[in-house]
Automatic annotation (TrEMBL):
InterPro entries: ICL/PEPM (IPR039556), Pyrv/PenolPyrv_kinase-like_dom (IPR015813), Pyrv_kinase-like_dom_sf (IPR040442). Keywords: Lyase. This is Isocitrate lyase/phosphoenolpyruvate mutase family protein. GO terms for molecular function: lyase activity. Gene3D superfamilies: Phosphoenolpyruvate-binding domains.
Length: 277
C-alpha cells in the first residue's frame, strides 16, 4: 500500500472491483517478486495464496503456518505494491471467533484490505465447520474491521464442492448464512461447470468468486455467467514450481538448458524490484 493512500480508500477501491459480468481477475501471488510481477502485468489488485505462501516458507498448506509468519508475508507484499491487497487467511489462524477478530486487526495492520476465510476443517472429522460456528467467525471478522473503521472485503469461502461435502443447495445455504453474518462475497472453489456456476451466481446474493485452472471456461465465459471475481489460487505457483522441477531434471539428467528459455529477463526483474547491477 502506498503511503499516500488511506486503508479505507483502498478498501473501497477494492470493493468496487467486484462487478458481476465484469469480474476482478486475480493471478494470486505469494511473495514480493510474484506480487510485483502480477501488478506489472496489469492486475487491479493482488491476492495472496496461502498454499504458495506456506510452500515458500517450508510448510505444507492447511493451517500449518503461524499467524505471524502468514501475515508477515502479507505485509511484505502490501508494502511493495500500489494496488489493493487481499489476504488468504485460511480458516482465520485462530481457534475461536475472538481470535479471528485478532487476526483481522493484524491483517489491517499488515496493509491488506480484503480477506478470504474458509469453512473447511483440517485433520480427522467433518470436512466443514458447522454453519453457525463459521457464521460467528465471519461476524467477528466483520466486527473487528468495522471497529477499525476499514470496510474490509470479507470473502467467505465455501468448500462444499472442493471437499465433496455438498451440492448446490448446501452451498447456497452456507453462502446465505455467511452473507447474513457480514461477509461481502462468496468464494466457491472446486467447480467451474458452467451450469453450476450460473446457478451459484443467480442464487447467491453477493459477488461470486470462482477458482480457475486448466480446463476452466475463459474469463469472458465466466463473466457471461455472472461471476464477479476469478482467482488462480495456487495455480501460478504450481506452474512455477513445475518449471523448476522440469528444468532441474533436464540440467541434471540431460545436461541441457532448454527449460531455462523464456524466463524473465534478469535486468528487468531486478529493476522491477528496485535493484541495480
Amino acid at each position: 500500500m502506498t503511503s499516500e493512500t488511506l486503508p479505507g480508500e483502498q478498501a473501497l477501491a477494492f470493493r468496487a472491483l467486484h462487478v458481476p459480468g465484469r469480474p476482478l481477475v486475480l493471478p494470486n501471488a505469494w511473495d514480493t517478486a510474484s506480487a510485483r510481477l502480477v501488478e506489472e502485468a496489469g492486475a487491479a489488485a493482488v491476492a495472496t495464496t496461502s498454499a504458495a505462501v506456506a510452500w515458500g516458507l517450508g510448510a505444507a498448506d492447511g493451517d500449518r503456518l503461524t499467524r505471524a509468519d502468514a501475515l508477515a508475508a502479507v505485509a511484505r507484499i502490501a508494502d511493495t505494491v500500489a494496488v489493493p491487497v487481499t489476504a488468504d487467511i485460511e480458516t482465520g489462524y485462530a481457534d475461536d471467533p475472538a481470535g479471528v477478530g485478532d487476526t483481522i486487526r493484524e491483517v489491517l495492520a499488515a496493509g491488506a484490505v480484503g480477506v478470504n476465510i474458509e469453512d473447511g476443517l483440517y485433520g480427522p472429522g467433518a470436512p466443514l465447520r458447522p454453519v453457525d460456528e463459521q457464521a460467528e467467525r465471519i461476524a467477528a471478522a466483520r466486527a473487528a474491521a468495522d471497529t477499525a473503521g476499514v470496510p474490509l472485503f470479507v470473502n467467505a469461502r465455501v468448500d462444499t464442492y472442493l471437499r465433496g461435502a455438498g451440492g448446490l443447495g448446501d452451498t447456497l445455504e452456507r453462502a446465505a448464512a455467511f452473507l447474513a453474518a457480514g461477509a461481502d462475497g462468496v468464494f466457491v472453489p472446486g467447480t467451474f461447470d458452467p451450469v453450476t456456476v450460473k446457478a451459484l451466481a443467480e442464487g447467491i446474493e453477493g459477488p461470486l468468486n470462482v477458482l480457475v485452472g486448466p480446463g476452466a471456461p475463459s474469463v469472458a465465459e465466466l463473466a457471461a455467467l455472472g461471476v464477479a471475481r476469478i482467482s488462480a489460487g495456487s495455480g501460478l505457483a504450481e506452474a512455477v514450481h513445475g518449471l523448476v522441477l522440469r528444468a532441474a531434471r533436464e540440467l541434471l539428467d540431460a545436461g541441457t538448458y532448454g527449460g531455462l528459455a523464456g524466463g524473465a529477463d534478469y535486468a528487468s526483474l531486478n529493476g522491477l524490484l528496485g535493484g541495480g547491477r
